[in-house]
């Protein structure tokens, strides 16, 4: 790969490995194991594998490595490890560097499964966790301790779209010798570079924008070479969270159009965001690209655009939200996001239903809130669909 390649070129060509057949499209190596010419080679490879030497698909695979190298080149990371899902990435990135007695500081506004790992699993294994309002740097600063090992946050919170000052949090974390782990899935690797802002580790659910067409599960953890090929790879290959080579190939194909899709989706999201404030049936619209967003200035510094996601507070609580959802004709009800198809979900009864009403209220997740992931349909059709659904509220 040429170091001066721009992002869209890297998305198409970075990390490519061709066999002796010279195939145009990346090959799928659907093999779980590899053979060696002799016993001495097998012994040597288990001691230290070379760049294109593989042992077992749980440890690495040529197709998987292509995906890892391509996403690392896009993100500006030294290395990447592909995982079976986004949650496998979150679990591995946290657990591989924590042990009983460690302290973690985390933003409290998290996706439900991330919150389960932070609030339930880590304390079960003797890790103390302090939750803070991620938008308040003073709370991060007050929570940091000499034994704090790790800070964790979502760059854009799910589903309320809070924007966190990554550079500010990174400075606080590094001041106490802690690592900053950022889940960047809502911001996307196209619209925000969290490593460049100071994060040590970046996580993606590749199931979302990177695939972008609802086909398969996948995740990836990016960071320094010594972290990814050290504690992370050791943890993942022994706990079984590696990605399927077929899924890695699907994600490679998704990356070829990632830049085009994300920018088109963000443009439509901005169009929707400016179309509906003040519309009957809509109590509030949250979008980081709007001037009325509490962290709009920060979002403008950190992100290229306001992103592909919106949160709508529908009048009438749950009943009003359900009327809105059921009236939609183009936008589909689904808990996925980042897809070519526009998708909408009701967090209080789906992704965050495990939380108590009090917890949801503290996070700003009301019964009338719906989360909208904007797809690639014609913007005018999406505007018309939302308008007629709001009329049904």
Q: Could you give a quick summary of the protein structure above?
A:
Helix content is 40%, strand content 15%. The protein is built from 15 helices and twelve strands.
What's the SSE blueprint?
Elements: H1 7-13, H2 39-47, H3 62-75, E1 79-83, H4 86-95, E2 103-107, H5 112-124, E3 128-132, H6 137-143, E4 148-154, H7 166-175, E5 179-183, H8 188-191, E6 201-205, E7 219-223, H9 225-239, H10 245-255, H11 258-275, E8 282-286, H12 296-302, E9 309-314, H13 317-327, E10 332-333, E11 343-345, H14 357-363, E12 369-373, H15 379-391
Parallel strand pairs: 2-3, 2-4, 4-5, 5-6, 10-11
Antiparallel strand pairs: 1-7, 6-7, 8-9, 9-12, 11-12
Helix pairs in contact: 1-3, 3-10, 4-5, 13-15
Rg computed from alpha carbons, rounded to a whole number of angstroms = 21 Å
Helix and strand succession?
HHHEHEHEHEHEHEEHHHEHEHEEHEH
Q: What is the CATH level 1 assignment of the largest domain?
A: Alpha Beta
CATH topology title of the largest domain = Aspartate Aminotransferase, domain 2
How does this model look, in words?
- This protein has 393 residues and is of the alpha/beta class.
- The protein folds into 2 domains: 7-255, Aspartate Aminotransferase, domain 2 (3-Layer(aba) Sandwich); 258-391, Aspartate Aminotransferase, domain 1 (Alpha-Beta Complex).
- 40% of the residues lie in helices and 15% in strands.
- It contains 15 helices and 12 strands.
- The chain has helices at 7-13, 39-47, 62-75, 86-95, 112-124, 137-143, 166-175, 188-191, 225-239, 245-255, 258-275, 296-302, 317-327, 357-363, 379-391; strands at 79-83, 103-107, 128-132, 148-154, 179-183, 201-205, 219-223, 282-286, 309-314, 332-333, 343-345, 369-373.
- Helix 3 (62-75) runs parallel beside helix 10 (245-255), helix 4 packs parallel to helix 5 (112-124) and helix 13 (317-327) crosses helix 15 (379-391).
- The radius of gyration is 21 Å and the shape is globular.
- The model has no long low-confidence stretch (mean pLDDT 96).
């Amino acid at each position: 790969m040429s170091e001066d390649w721009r992002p869209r070129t890297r998305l198409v060509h970075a990390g490519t490995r061709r066999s002796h057949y010279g195939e145009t499209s990346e090959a799928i190596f659907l093999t779980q194991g590899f053979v060696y010419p002799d016993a001495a080679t097998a012994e040597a490879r288990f001691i230290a594998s070379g760049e294109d030497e593989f042992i077992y698909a749980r440890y690495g695979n040529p197709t998987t490595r292509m995906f890892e190298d391509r996403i690392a080149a896009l993100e500006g990371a030294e290395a990447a490890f592909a995982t079976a899902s986004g949650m496998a990435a979150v679990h591995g990135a946290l657990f591989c560097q924590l042990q009983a007695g460690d302290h973690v500081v985390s933003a409290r506004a998290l996706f439900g499964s991330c919150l389960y790992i932070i609030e339930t699993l880590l304390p079960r294994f003797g890790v103390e966790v302090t939750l803070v309002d991620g938008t308040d740097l003073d709370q991060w600063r007050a929570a940091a301790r000499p034994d704090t090992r790790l800070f964790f946050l979502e760059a854009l919170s799910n589903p309320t779209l809070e924007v966190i000052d990554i550079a500010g949090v990174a400075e606080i974390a590094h001041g106490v010798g802690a690592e900053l782990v950022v889940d960047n899935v809502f911001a996307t690797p196209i619209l925000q570079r969290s490593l460049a802002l100071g994060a040590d580790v970046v996580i993606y659910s590749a199931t979302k924008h990177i695939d972008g067409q609802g086909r398969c599960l996948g995740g990836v953890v990016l960071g320094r070479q010594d972290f990814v090929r050290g504690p992370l790879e050791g943890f993942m290959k022994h706990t079984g969270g590696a990605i399927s080579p077929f899924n890695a190939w699907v994600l490679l194909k998704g990356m070829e159009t990632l830049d085009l899709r994300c920018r088109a989706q963000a443009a439509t999201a901005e169009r929707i965001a400016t179309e509906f404030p003040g519309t009957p049936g809509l109590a509030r619209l949250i979008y980081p690209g709007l001037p009325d967003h509490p962290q709009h200035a920060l979002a403008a510094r950190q992100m290229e655009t306001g992103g592909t996601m919106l949160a709508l507070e529908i009048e009438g609580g749950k009943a009003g939200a359900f009327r809105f959802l059921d009236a939609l004709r183009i936008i589909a009800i689904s808990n996925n996001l980042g897809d070519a198809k526009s998708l909408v979900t009701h967090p209080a009864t789906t992704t965050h239903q495990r939380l108590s009403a009090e917890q949801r209220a503290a996070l700003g997740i009301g019964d009338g809130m719906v989360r909208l992931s904007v797809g690639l349909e014609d913007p005018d059709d999406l505007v018309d669909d939302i308008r007629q659904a709001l009329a049904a509220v």
